[in-house]
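Sample pair:
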Amino acid sequence: MVTAVSTWFWADSKLNHENVLADYPGRPPAGKGTNWLIVGSDSRQGLTDSEQDDLHTGHDTEGKRSDSMMVLHVGDNGNTLMSIPRDSWVPIPEYKNSSGKTLKGTTSKINSAFGNGGGRLLVQTVELNTGIRIDHYAEIGFAGFVGIVDSIGGVEMHIDQDLKDKDSGLDLKAGDQTLNGKQALAFVRQRHQMADQDLGRMRNQQKFLGALAHQAASPGTVLNPFTFYPLVDSALGTLIVDDDAGLTDLGSLFLAMKDVNGGGGKTLTVPIGNPDYRTKTGESAVLWDAAKSKQVFDAFKNDTAVPDIK
């Protein structure tokens, strides 16, 4: 019992909390079930120059941008993992920057909300555009992602075809294999072999995160101190969560992800109306299908079965 209690307090002390769920006028009311906003950032924090070279992350990027963005709904009618394209063209509310200056709202790619205003502005932007109240937030950078995968001895995956990508450093053969941290990071980042680029990459991210959660939550990992303690140290030491998120909440998150991967839930992408929308400045962005998206968002809010949308 002493060991269990000590482990609990040690693990809880590793969490990095951030006030990203602040209230504001017009915030959506609480719905049924629990909604997580899960963000994979391209933060290089914790990586040496040689590690950045080895992982093909580059050195010339300051700050952080979202490399992946998903909303996980945990409810009584099945768990659903929904990816949001980082190039989604959406209204972004006004916000105060780090120097306290208020910047007017605009319409831009949703990734810029995270890059300019961090987790708090991203949460507000997602809530504004979906009507879904975000109950919890989790964010992890490159170093933490690699550490989690390596701490459990890699993640078993089935690769459908040979994959080789110069930019991410990916070089995998088709078939069943175990991806280490470096390979896993390259797998979830690569997009050039996908016909639909970022949309295809999001499918790989969903597939990998489900496999990771399944393996991390398995008895072989949780009950083995040689994998459990390194996993907790790697995962919680680099994870950023909202102020109210605790170990029990994170446990529910992992179990829900495991359930989605095991066929007990579903994965999808925000319904797309135009994957190559041209903005006034000539940028290529992603426009959501307003009618179909509303059906999905309403299901999240009301904790009803998410419809199959073609």
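Residues 56-60 have pLDDT under 50 and may be disordered.
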